[in-house]
Amino acid sequence: MRKKLRGKLPLTVCAVIALIAAAIFAARLADWQLIHGDEYKQLSTRSTSYSKETAATRGEILDKDGNGLVTNTTHYKIVIDKLYADENKLNATILSLVDLLGKAGDGWDDALPVSFSDGGFSFKQDASEDDLKQLREISEAGKDAPAEHIISLLCGKYDIPGDFSDEQKRVLCSVRYNMELTDYSNSNPYTFASDVSRDAVSAVSENTQGVGGIDVETYLVREAQDPTLAPHLIGALGAVTEEEYEQLSYSGKHYEITDTVGKFGIESAFEDELKGEGGTKIIQRNSDGTIVDTVETINSKPGNTVYLTLDSKLQKIAGESLKRNIEDARAEGEEESEEKGEKLRGEDCNSGAVVMLDVSDFSVLAAASYPTYDLNKYSKYDDYYVSLAENKTSPLYNRAFSGTFEWGSVFKPCVALAALEENIITPETEIFCTEKYDYYPSNVVKCMHRHEDIDLRGAITQSCNYYFAETGRLLGIDTMYLYAEQFGLGEYTGVEIEESKGTLAGRDSTEWQPGNTVQAAIGQSDNAFTPVQLATYAATVANDGVRLKTHVVSKITDYERKKVIADYSKPEKVLECGVSKENLEIVQSDMLNVTQDEDGTGYLVFGDYPIEVAAKTGTAENSGSDHTTFICYAPYDKPKVAVAVVLEHGVKGKYSMQVARDLLDGYFRS
């Protein structure tokens, strides 16, 4: 008996639960249909809802003090949403919008290559063949059809009545034509006008209440605040390629094939941090198209903010000084060339670069490459981009980080440090300079002067080629380049964006003869380094032989700049160069003498400078006029900054030194 009861119990429980569920459902159904039926029916006829993807906001790029380099600014646009627009009133709505925008002083998106003036239609003079071909295809007009006939065909295609004036027909045809080009549909609203003023926003909002399908929307425009300041470092965005799309699909971020991504510079190197994630929101409208409720079901997440180590003020000084001194060097070269009837006087000086580092952490305070360009114009990839790509001076080339140049005598302090450490020379070692070093007849080295007996201090101060050719021969190329590597020459510096490794003579040479060593010792031969490497080298000498990782990013925060996600401000030690403090102090003192001694090659520009500057000048032979180069650090006793400058074909050292002086002025007089 008990067994039978136990067998029926589960069935009884299930039946009771089913009856309760049915009762609840019946009660809820009665509430919906009988008690509140009219209310819900009225609501359903008054409103509808749909989902919409929200755009992903890309993170911003700032300088070390939080000043905007690339930021997002809010703009307004007028859109027509087909889902809610009354097609029977669309013509009148379009003409009304044109009138409202005109009174506010704003334009609208006009893509039709046909104009109306003097009572007739004609093709626009700036219309391309592709534009006209597309117009004829869409209007189904013949190859030689006149503009008036095409307007007539478009009016028929878009059901534009004949009682409108010719000018109104032209406006309506333009808007309808552009709607077709941009795939205007229920799921794709049409942007009637972009970047409209606040006055236009107010006028449209006030005068289109109750007009279905007309919206004022905000959107963000990403722009460089000073577009010529640091375009080579900041980088730009471009359409994602198939290869990039496949790679990015594994990044953990969502990408569409229509997205844009960073192509170079910080925009590329920190794509993962800067990329934002879009969201989804449910929009509810009533019958006249007015939004009554918006609920974000998937929150959008903006990208992070990247702080650079750049000082905008110093970066501006660097760019302006480069431009001015390159122009002055070229002007003097042209004048001398004309007077003396000789070439290679600097008349071909058109470009250069400069880098300034903070010695305390090797952060990049300024890195300018000239010629520069407008980043905002570049991003449009139009005729401006083509002109840059075809320019013989290569303005798109990042000379500061990727440009490799012969540097000449600025290499000599490295040779001196290596020779001292290897006991090849002492500070008192004298070598007799006859002005022409011909130990290797096939590699004769000429000196600027006949110095006769000269010691290390004199050789660095006066830049004696003879002294360093002999010292380099005794040192040997293998030892020479091993020390050069320690100081960061021919090595990646660590900057987060694209950089060149350069070429180190002997190590990277395909062929080598013993006589090549004397050329390498004076900074010639195959030696070719980047400005950022030379700045790192100067900073390493200033930092008593300790080389740190050179970097251009300070930190990463969330978009609101409140939470620090990654901090790169702490100095990162790469290595110690293996040179004793005693030998470093000898060369450091000799570099000070370059600017303080009346015979010093840097005295002309820095002899009266209020802060002691340790430096080395350089002139490098190459095809064309000689390059003029310069490295320095200051103050001598407690170094804070290091600078490297190269003016391609600048010839005279005063111009490269003046760029460095301008930057030091900006740093110490701020």
What does this structure look like?
The chain has 23 helices and 25 strands. With 670 residues, it is α+β, with helices and mostly antiparallel strands. The strands form eight sheets. Strands 2, 3, 6, 7, 12, 20 and 21 form a seven-stranded mixed sheet that branches. Strands 14-13-25-24-23 form a five-stranded antiparallel sheet. It is elongated and about 100 Å long. The termini are far apart.
Which descriptors would you attach to this protein?
single chain; 670 residues; alpha+beta; Beta-lactamase; seven-stranded mixed sheet; five-stranded antiparallel sheet; 39% helix; 20% strand; disordered N terminus
Would you kindly provide a brief summary of this structure?
Helices cover 39% and strands 20% of the residues. It has 23 helices and 25 strands. Helix 15 (412-421) crosses helix 17 and helix 16 packs across helix 21.
List the helices and strands and how they pair.
Blueprint: H1 2-35, H2 37-46, E1 47-54, E2 61-62, E3 68-80, H3 90-103, E4 114-117, E5 120-123, H4 129-139, H5 147-157, H6 166-181, E6 190-193, H7 198-207, E7 214-224, H8 231-234, E8 237-239, H9 242-248, E9 260-262, H10 265-269, H11 271-274, E10 279-286, E11 291-298, E12 305-308, H12 312-340, E13 351-358, E14 363-370, H13 375-378, H14 383-390, H15 412-421, E15 431-433, E16 436-437, E17 445-446, E18 452-454, H16 456-462, H17 465-475, H18 477-486, H19 516-521, H20 531-542, E19 546-548, E20 553-557, E21 564-567, E22 573-576, H21 581-596, H22 603-606, E23 614-620, E24 627-634, E25 641-648, H23 653-668
Parallel strand pairs: 2-12
Antiparallel strand pairs: 1-10, 2-3, 3-6, 3-7, 4-5, 8-9, 10-11, 12-20, 13-14, 13-25, 15-18, 16-17, 19-22, 20-21, 23-24, 24-25
Helix pairs in contact: 3-6, 3-7, 12-23, 15-17, 15-18, 15-21, 16-21
